[in-house]
Please model this.
Amino acid sequence: MNKKSIAFQLGLSMLSILILVFAATIFLNYNFSRELLIHAMGENIDHCGLSVLLWKMIGVSVAGLLVILLLFVFISRRTLIPLSKITESIRKFTFGERLKRKPKNEVELLTDSLSELQQKYSAFLNEQNQNKRDRRKYEKDLKSAQEIQSVIIPGQLSLQEHPAVELYAAVQPAESIGGDLYDYFFIDSNHLLFVIGDVSGKGIPAALFMAVAHTVIKSKATILSAKQIVIEVNRELSRQNSNQHFLTLFLGILDIQYGILNYCNAAHNYPFLVTTDRQVRMLDQTHGLPVGIYQNKTYAGDSIVLREGDMMVLYTDGVTDCKDDNDHSYGVERLSENISSTMELSSQDIVSRLLKSLAVFRGETPQVDDISLMAIRYLGRKN
Model:
């Protein structure tokens, strides 16, 4: 036990007091008893009896002293020693191993610990307040990012303005904002460009890269060659890509007058083509690596002819990689079956039905990746 502890100091104090009380008691009792004997027996006092009386008093006092000491030891073990252990635990919790000066006793140690805890609590409150301010700022910035992303994502294509094609798309970010992108616009009066892509990663960094990619695609869409647009987009995105993001991309240019589709697939998920005779097949050609990795990478392309009533369904890997409660994936086969069962519906109804199917399949499992779907039906030139 520490010689400066309360238990040690209290023990020394009690022992000193007991010795003094012991000596005083013996002295007083002996004198008192001696006076009584002298008064009762006069000059015939027995000095041998006085000696015996004195030793009896000493024996009784020593026995009483031992009983008190035993009581003190018992009380110390039950109260004071546990108190010292608790105080030491408080010291370690508060200061760890960095306590520079040794406190005199438990009271001083508890005082120092209380002062230290008050300082830590004040620092904690300041940190909490700062975190709240940072959180409010983050939420404000996130809301602004959501608004910007909602502006980037186009509205639905109007059949009244473009009766040759029916198109509908939707995106469900895994977080507040996501890295999936889709877009569609007319390069000229006869050529519809549509694109769907998936940026590596999630959250704000992926959303920023998505916004940049969306802008670059818009700026490079000045020619009627899907592969050449992808080459230009890749070259531009690869120049300043310090975060090493990349983008899988499917870009198509549909001639709505003749139904000719020119497309380029930069390592994106294979889209489905559903023909009017209810055949479902995949456009399973890959024409190069994801964009944004190698600046001078070249890409190939392909062309097919869509017949009136043919439909394409494009998606990101958040669809096929969607997990259920048993960690099973939604998969390409399930997606193909659901597409074939909904081919008579409109593009909007097909996308809505597939999103509902994904939600039922996922159940209570959290969505871990962005989900994007696009359905395009070629209706042919309306004269």
